[in-house]
Amino acid sequence: MTAAEAAAGTARPPRIVKTPGALAPVPHLLDHAATCAAFRWDDARALLDGLPAGGLNIAHEAVDRHVAHNRGGKTAIRWLGKSGARREFSYADLAAGTSRFANALGALGVQPGERVFVLMGRLPELYLAVLGALKARCVVSPLFSAFGPEPIATRCEMGDARVLVTTPELYQRKVKGLRERLPGLKHVILVGDAVDEAGTVRWADVVDPASLDFTIGATDPETMSLLHFTSGTTGRPKGAIHVHEAVVMHAMTARYALDLHDDDVFWCTADPGWVTGTSYGIVAPLVSGVTNVVVEAEFDAPTWYSVLQDERVTVWYTAPTAIRMMMRLGADSLRGYDLSALRFMASVGEPLNPEAVWWGLDAFGKTFHDNWWQTETGGIMVSNYAAMDIKPGSMGKPLPGITAAIARRTSEGRVELIDAPDTEGELVLKTPWPSMMRGYLHEEERYRKCFADGWYFTGDLAKRDADGYYWFVGRADDVIKSAGHLIGPFEVESALMEHPAVAEAGVIGIPDPTVGEVVKAYVALKPGFEPSEALNRELLGHARKRLGAAVAPKAIEFRSNLPKTRSGKIMRRLLKARELGLPEGDLSTLESDEKR
Ligand code: AMP
Questions:
Q1: CATH number of the domain that 578 lies in?
Q2: Do 449 and 563 fall within a single domain?
Q3: Which amino acid residue places its CA nearest to atom 15 of ligand 1?
Q4: Count of domains for the chain
Q5: Helix (H, G, I), strand (E, B), or coil: what is residue 194?
Q6: pTM confidence score
Q7: Is residue 9 over pLDDT 80?
């Protein structure tokens, strides 16, 4: 409820009541409690076929089995290019294209288990490469195309990239200069009208001529499938390891959380460089056999409304930043569009303000269904459902098969569950579930620390109310969420420190009404350098060049010294408290400091 509404006496009710009987088609999850009580993981597994050769392979479930079941003619991907181009790929086309890519990897000598990185916008080849590499039992790591050279290099190094699929433009701007740092990167496949570049091969030369026949080898469900990098407070990015078994979760959540039915036209607006764009922009819709709309262009409200209208999108999965950008334009901006096909709207990635839920109802005539998950969980864990009342501002209730709780860690490292309703604690999940990460690459200890007594600690603070609805409170650590992207302050600080003028850097997220948080850096300069407008601009430019627009700070402030603990760690929390005028909290570990 906004202050204006309260003042006007138009307070919103605490719930949006659903009438399940009135919904068509009948939602897969009609009664949350009953479905959870009856749920068995074997039932979710039964949504899938398994591989003829044995085991479970994501690409077989997402692509080939639809052809085997005579559904090959159905449109799997409808691709809408930036400049108006439009391409349809049937499940049979996708089966052929992904087999070609798998065969091309084989011809290059790439072995199962080796790492295939993709760095490009939402081009059709991205989808063929991801699924083709999974067919070849390689490990796929999608990178966000707006990353600068530094995040690309760090991730390729950490992940032992053997193959990189990218575009000539991204190669020249971001990768070419890194090749010496990446001796293990043996093959770079350039998509599109590639120029001749030493050390690269062209998609047209290696993939297009490859055979359309490929038989996926036996795949143990525990075989590594995807490597998704995410950010922590300290140190390098974390490489979350996922396995083919995760597809069980994708199939199940597509059914219960997104309520996908056979005839749906689905659109997930996330980029596959982030986990939502892979799990729900590629795997989940294709596993469900629906038509998956892929839009190459970035956000622009009229374009998005036209996509919803012209493609007759029925299920739409988007994010709070985009919803808030639409809100800024007002419900009037929607007038004249025929959105009658749209049946179900979901949102993920950041807190969805109650105002945004109410706005959705006013503007679209239906509610956004918020859901919660993270890179490490591999799939949706807590959700609002088509047939369950919504409490605007709440992330909903756990998926069938998922046990969530609010907890705190005791000083002995044990779990203390908090049963009292409306009490803040860390959101924890009972292990295991099929899409749970199986490790952080090369970081056993960091992985181990996420678990205690059979519970996974998510790093998010939340509350559960007396009706079992979960409410997001904030992060337990210092990571920043900007426009839905998780950004590690350490990565930004490290890039700033590479500049000769910078002695120290502390990076925090500042609340922003549209993108959630914006990245802000505090910088102390080395002797001989003086703060100036010109240096500020130079540092912003340096960070942007190294990190890319999605990660670089939007503002820099000079300080003569930054608050640090006795062990020399910059106290980001204190920087933030001071920036926002909040209580400074426990300062017992504070060593050096100069307030402003
Ligand atoms: P990522 O691993 O990049 O997908 O980021 C996961 C993090 O995003 C979570 O740990 C939360 O902090 C945040 N997040 C995801 N979904 C939601 C949501 N529905 N409400 C609030 N925060 C969310």
A1: 3.30.300.30
A2: no
A3: 349
A4: 2
A5: coil
A6: 0.93
A7: no
